[in-house]
Amino acid sequence: MDRTQILLVGLPIFLFFTDIINLFSPSPPPKSSHHNLPQPQQPQFQQPLDFPSQKPSETGPIGAGPIGVGNTVSIDFCTSCSYKGTAVTVKNMLESLFPGINVVLANYPPPLPKRVISKVIPVLQTGIIIAITAGDQIFPRLGVTPPQLYYSLRANKFRSIASTWLLANFVQSFLQSSGAFEVYFNGELVFSKLKENRFPGEFELKELIGKRIGNTHIF
After folding, report:
1. What is the pTM of this model?
2. For residue 142, what are the domain limits?
3. Which of 50, 67, 160, 177 lies 20 to 30 A from 60 at CA?
4. How would you write 178-209 as a 3-class SS string?
5. In Å, what is the CA distance from 136 to each residue of 11, 142, 155?
6. Where is there biased composition of kind Low complexity (predicted)?
C-alpha cells in the first residue's frame, strides 16, 4: 500500500476510536453562570435642566416683544457670483442679534443690456459649434462661401469646439453677474457693495441696523 492508501484507511479508523473514547469519558461539570450575571444598575436621578430665561437685551419695552419685530432687512445679492453663502451667514447673524427681525434674501439682477446680451450668447455658441461640425453640408446648401476663419476652426475641430464652449460660458457668466450685495432696512439702503467695493462687516451691520431699530442699549 502506498502512502495515500494508508492515509485513506487510517484516518477513518483513527476517527472511529476517538469517538469511542469520547463516548465513555465523563463530561465536564457545567459552569456556574451566577457569577457572571450583570449587576443591576442603580437608577440615576438627573438634575432638572435649567433653561436660561430670555435676556433683557433681547426685548424692547415691557410688552413690546422681541426688538426686531416689525422690521424687515432685505439683502439683494448676486446669485451668479456665489454670494449666497455670505448672504445666508449675514441673515443668521442678524436674526441672532435682533430676535424677531424679518430678513429677506433676493437676487440682484444685472442691468437690462447685459441680460439681453447674455441671452444671445448661447445662440451664437450653438451656431458656431454646428458650423464647425457640419459646415461642409450647410454652406453649399446656402450658397455661401465659408469665411477664412471657418477653415481655421475646422483644422482642429475638438480644440475649436472646446474653446468656443468655454469662452461663451465665461462671457455669459460675466454678463449675468452684478457684483451686488445691497442691504436695505425697511426699504432704506444702509449698505451697498456696489458703492463700497467690499462686503459689510459684522459689527458694521450690527451698528447700522441697531441704530435704525432705535435700541442702542444692546451695544
Report:
1. 0.59
2. 112-176
3. 50
4. CCCEEEEECCEEEEEHHHHCCCCCHHHHHHHH
5. 84, 11, 13
6. 37-54
CA nearest to 190, candidates 218, 168, 160, 211: 211
Nearest to 163 by CA among 134, 142, 132, 189: 132
Cell numbers placing 115:
441680460
3-state per-residue secondary structure call for 31-51: CCCHHHCCCCCCCCCCCCCCC
CA dihedral 92, 93, 96, 99 (to 10 degrees): -80
Q: Report the distance separating Cα 73 and Cα 63, nearest Å.
A: 23
- Residues counted in the chain: 219
Q: Is 27 inside any structural domain? A: no
* Cell representation of residue 123: 445662440
pLDDT digits (tens, 9 = 90+) for 39-97: 545 444 444 434 334 444 445 544 455 777 889 999 999 998 989 999 999 999 999 99
Place of cell 469662452: 167
Residues 85 and 172 placed together within one structural domain of the fold? no
Residue 57 lies in a domain: no
Contact criterion met (CB below 8 Å) for 114 and 175: yes
